Amino acid sequence: MLELKACATTARLSHELFSSTLILFFSESCGTAVDVACVLRAGWVASLPWCNLGNVAYDSEGAAIHRERDVMDIKARSVAWKTGGTCSTKVGNRPGNTKKNRYKDVVPYDETRVILSLLQEEGHGDYINANFIRGTDGSHAYIATQGPLPHTLLDFWRLVWEFGITVILMACQETENGRKKCERYWAQEQGPLQTGPFCITLIKEMPVNADIILRTLRVTFQKESRSVHQLQFMSWPDHGVPSNPDHILTMVEEARRLHGAGPEPLLVHCSAGCGRTGVLCAVDYVRQLLLTQTIPPNFNLFDVVLEMRKQRPAAVQTEEQYRFLYHTVAQLFSRTLQNTSPHHQKLKENCAPIGKDSLSLRISPEPSATSRPPGGVLSRSISVPGSQTRTMADTYAVVQKRGAPAGAGRGTRVPSSTDTIIYSQVTPRSQRPVAHTEDATGTTPPGRVPVDLNPPGPDAYEEVTNGPQTGGLGFNLRIGRPKGPRDPPAEWTRVCLAAGIVSTVCGRTIFQGKIYGGQMASSERWPWQASLLFHGSHICGAVLIDKNWVASAAHCFLRSRKPSDYRILLGYNQLGSPTNFSRQMTVNKLILHENYHKFHHQGNDIALIQLHRPVAYSSSIFPACVPENTMKVFQARSCWISGWGMLREDKFLPSPFPLQEAEVSLIDNKECETFFHTSESIGQYNAIKDDMICAGDVKNGKSICLGDTGGPLVCSLNGSWYVVGLGSWSAACLEPISSPNIFTKVSYYSNWIKKKKEETPDADPFSAPADENAPTLVGWRSFNTGTILKPSICRALLSSQVLLLQSIWFQIP
Length: 813
Prior knowledge:
By secondary structure, the chain is an alpha+beta fold. It contains ten helices and 39 strands.
């Protein structure tokens, strides 16, 4: 069983970490001979070194071996840029501007400096000691600036207002070691702060943890008011580092939660706006790479810091800060791993050292002992659950290779001879199915095994053969020693192969923390939210539960059981305004619960939708977790419903059809049932069964409405979002007295979901219809039979018990 550890156990992540499958590489030490357990699945593209972190290895104490050399190299390049004119600072050194610089040796680069235009007509200049720093998408994601001086307070708030800043990260104190480091620019409880035309008022101040304070400020300028959040790290010494990397990650995560998905940059400062500021920007930058799945194959922190140094002088200033940055990023990956599904413990290792000539690994449905086939090639196998048809896209091999001796120059980032890297990936080009076979001869039928390979690069030497094997899923992989002059010092050391084994990350969103009576949801807040289309029109909500499967309510499919009649929309916030992340997916198979409507009305109201092709995850498309049947969902602290349904039964959602959300409370089934025991005329609808769960906000009238059913009720549990319910039925969504909504209880069906997924063959991507563009206009079909069950309830039918419960629970006056 594999075990999660900190950096004492090497771990490597692919940039698909937030995609369909978690890719882990574990070892017991960080040395030259690293044992690697490969956990691979379709979609894996590149590996991210962990303990190496791009040419920086850790010894047993966790110290960076090459940190001193790296910092000296970075500083030397920075000096060369300045003296060579690459990074000019002429504007900041002008006589009228030098007095605005807190430190004479920290002057913003001209090319990336922030230029102020607000209030210029009143005689205020355009200069402030601040630089833009690009984010992962190339936009101005950060503004790095110094702590304001008494005479630059106005310029500071001009910057905040002009660039729409909503979150400020402060990494220093006002005074450190008896020296003034930052003029106080925020208000205190004693009263507002006035600087020029800006009035700043403190709304709230509260600790986030022992090191961080969160202040909420109201800024008023020319009769307009805005909210600005400030996070101040109270214990970060100048030229030093904090004692706890976890608190830095908390600060960055909290900043992104407060910031939302808007385009405005984060404003980051310390005293000089370089060392501590650079660390915060770099940590957030790497975190965004993880969230957006854009970590490059050659990722390393040296290049990240070097690129930031080109935009802001002295970003990540000291060797100690540089080392701390490595530890913090390692902690970021560790925290990410700890938030993954525990199913990784079921993974099996299938690695073996390469023999004298090559190594052959295969995959079979049953485990077998290690054998040595003709030719002296070592052969091993692993077990693949089930015998369903798979494609070779599910199978990968990874080669770990010792690097050539150092000496190619820093620019090429060649690993030293003591480093070990994941060198290459083997991906069969063929997408032909490889089926389980019962051939008694033990020979895979001709045509079942792909003979071609898509080499990952010019330095890879792989050959896939279709030689005899013991039968079952798989292919023979032969990887020989390097040939020719391309990389003669290199040596293959290990090959690992795995398939059909997956550990899924789920329930993560860049936000922590209709629908009738609800509010518009922020972009990317609910990345698992899906729209079910029938002939191009929205009829129900749905929820993504993994890269191939979507869940919804069975009643949404009463019109038709033909998969081709339906489409799934993912990555939408506004149905009328698709983005680059929006996708329209075709449906391969519909699975309605076999007992739907059989034993009681609206019982077993659940359906699974298999997509033709796996969906690529992003910050806009990501699955919710499916709770186990033993999970205590009533312990959840926060539960939300979301959807694109009607605002009322007589009012459609207006264009561009924004996603609606509402926070609700879970209600015990017995208490919930009292809302529906009103008369025999609706008695056929009123039974709240064990496979149902109730939720709502009766006081504020937040409920699901027409078009919301089938969509998710999600609750935050153990740091992840779980789809606790699927919208099933409710009373009319605009009654004189509101009642709870009834959802299909997903945990009740967790075993059914697993069983159906396991016994359903993988979709054949070649049978899918041609790719379709995400629609720019989504219609609404009339919501009639099969969309929602809504027993009518009138105030006159409500019992005194219900009215009393409402007045007690929800304080209705």
